[in-house]
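User: quick one, fold this
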Amino acid sequence: MVRPKRFRFIGRKPTIDYFKPRGIPLSELQEINLTHEEYEALRLKEIGNYDQKKAAELMNISQPTYSRILDSARKKVADAIINGKVLKIEGGVFKMVQRKFKCFQCQLEWEVAFGTGRPSKCPNCQSTNIHRVNVETSGFGHHGRGGMGKGKGSSQTGQGMGQDGQRRGQRFR
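Assistant:
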C-alpha cells in the first residue's frame, strides 16, 4: 500500500502560472504540468539560493524528496523551453505557509499567507498597533534558533546535559 503524501509547505503561489511559446497557436502545443511543489523547489533553489537541506526543511519534506521534486521540476522546465511546450503551474499536495498577527487594540488574531506583505492595520478595528505573533512552526518562520545556543552545550568545551539531566563538563580530546 502506498503511503499518503505529506503536505509540502510553499511560501507563495506564482503570480504567472502559464507560459507559452510566442507565435504558435495553443491548439498546436503540448502542455506540461508543473506542480506548486516543483515550482517552490525551483524558487527556493534558483532564486532564493537555499541549499537543498534548508529548502527541504522549509518545505517540510526530507532532503531526498526535495531532490527528487527539484530534479522533476528542472526536467519539465527544460522540456518546455527546448521543445517549445506550454508550461502550466497547478496542482500538487501543499499548504500555504501562514503568518499570524495580533492587534493589541482589540486583541484580534488572524493569519496572512507568507509572501503577501505585512498588513498595515487590523481588519477588525483598523488600528495600526499590530504585531506578528511568534508561533513555533516547522518550515518557514523557524530559523534554527533554540538549538545548542550559548551555555547550552558547545562543541568546543564539550559541555551540555547528560541523559540523566546533569551538566557535563568534559573536554573533547
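User: anything notable?
Assistant: Residues 136-173 have pLDDT under 50 and may be disordered.
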